[in-house]
Specification:
- The chain is mainly alpha-helical.
- The protein has one domain.
- It is about 80% helix and about 0% strand.
- Helix 5 runs antiparallel to helix 7 and helix 7 runs parallel beside helix 14.
- The longest helix has about 30 residues.
- The radius of gyration is 20 Å and the shape is globular.
């Protein structure tokens, strides 16, 4: 409950202070185009080690007219790409603890590759749908009532804070609180005990891509965090409970439902445009993922396996891939 209230409070503080960021975003950082916001979401997710705060910030910027729907959509896409970095970092930590380096790091690299293979093809599709306005008529019942109810409840806190702090400071405090709220969500989840759960026994079901796709989708919905749902794959793969061919459809499913927490943020802000952006993002992930799973999973698995093996073949290849992952968002912002 504390995490939920903190999450809502953070949204309201960021909303109150977001208008003060417009000169910074458009004047100094020059975040004026879709490519700029893509890089911003990507880099922000890498810095805070989570895509959810970056996506929620994008919703706030849209609600205050600092961003257009297309810029918001590309920033959310960037947050999904950057969110994979936490899985790679978990692999580093497992490698430092003495586990086999290749197994520990390969899950993170695979997460990066699979996320990019879905998010990048979905990007132009989503931009096209937003420009055509196909989902603008999706009903968003009682959004204003929900948002207004939370505003009234948190008024005794947000009112004095708004009066005391400048807009930029409000946004920074809100961003810090929303990151903390997601950390509290993660800590509130029960710790997995693999042996007690029976995961040390291989089930035939995990060899079915459709089953693993649905499992990845459901675990992400239940945990409200793709970092958690995919992060648990690191210890599972290191201990030999799950193999690469089982991981791939799981990550594809997680990439579909990863926007559940952002959808909640959009609804709490009471902005139909924000809800539309999230729905478009989820729809395009389905449009890309489901045909892969049903029609071309074999070639797709081989392609991703080849890309993974090339990346992990040498330190040079790994360094090139990691450098590109970190430098591309910077280049998008600067160009």
């Amino acid at each position: 409950m504390t995490a939920i209230l903190l999450f809502v409070l953070a949204l309201e503080l960021m909303k109150a202070g977001a208008s003060g960021l417009t000169p910074l975003l458009q004047g100094h950082l020059r975040i004026q185009h879709a490519a700029d916001s893509l890089g911003l979401g990507w880099l922000m997710a890498c810095v805070v080690l989570s895509g959810s705060p970056a996506a929620a910030i994008a919703m706030v910027l849209l609600s205050t007219d600092a961003f257009t729907p297309v810029q918001t959509y590309t920033m959310v896409t960037g947050s999904r790409l950057g969110a994979s970095f936490i899985v790679l970092l978990l692999g580093f930590l497992y490698a430092l603890r003495g586990h086999e380096r290749w197994k520990a790091l390969s899950t993170g690299v695979l997460s990066l590759l699979l996320t990019a293979s879905v998010q990048l093809p979905a990007l132009p599709v989503g931009v096209f749908i937003l420009k055509q306005g196909w989902l603008n008529t999706v009903p968003s019942p009682r959004l204003s009532a929900v948002s207004g109810g939370f505003n009234a409840f948190l008024g005794p806190v947000t009112g004095p804070a708004t009066a005391m702090l400048p807009q930029g400071a409000l946004f920074i405090v809100g961003a810090g609180l929303i990151t903390l709220s997601f950390q509290l969500f993660d800590k509130a989840l029960p710790q997995l005990r693999f042996e007690r759960a029976g995961l040390h026994r291989t089930s035939r079901l995990i060899y079915r891509p459709a089953v693993m796709f649905i499992l990845g989708l459901l675990v992400t919905v239940l945990t409200l965090s793709v970092s958690v749902s995919i992060g648990i794959l690191v210890p599972l793969s290191v201990r030999g409970y799950i193999r690469r061919e089982n991981i791939m459809p799981y990550i594809l499913g997680a990439n579909v439902s990863t926007m559940i927490d952002t959808l909640a943020a959009a609804a709490l802000l009471g902005n139909p445009q924000a809800v539309t952006v999230v729905l478009v993002h989820m729809a395009t992930a389905i449009v890309v993922s489901v045909p892969i799973l049903l029609l071309a999973y074999g070639p797709y698995e081989r392609l991703m396996s080849c890309a993974l093996e090339w990346t992990m073949k040498s330190r040079r290849n790994f360094g090139i891939s990691l450098g590109a992952f970190l430098l591309v968002p910077v280049a998008l912002i600067l160009t």
